[in-house]
Design brief:
about 90 residues, alpha+beta
Length: about 90
């Protein structure tokens, strides 16, 4: 299932995650840490894979279309487990 959010929203979710979460998600999903980082806007395709995100320029860092929300869903679950709220930007 695809999802569209702004790049700034995606980065805010990533920045709200507890330390070590990218490693945890990578381990749980059997993918590299760099692939998880690339999902949240990184650009290391030497050690990580492309992960089905498409960024279009625009306000709030542009729009991001996620082809697969598995990594995002897991990140949001972890935030919920830790009772971390990600408020929308003003």
């Amino acid at each position: 299932m695809t999802k569209t959010i702004t790049f700034n929203e995606l980065r805010k979710i990533k920045d709200s995650l507890p330390n070590g979460t990218t490693h945890r998600i990578a381990d749980e999903l059997g993918i590299s840490v760099e692939t998880v980082r690339n999902y949240f806007g990184g650009h290391n395709y030497k050690d990580g894979n492309s992960c089905g995100i498409h960024i279009e320029p625009g306000p709030d860092g542009g729009l991001v279309v996620l082809d697969d929300t598995t990594i995002l869903d897991r990140a949001l679950q972890i935030l919920e487990e830790n009772k971390v709220s990600v408020a929308p930007e003003a």
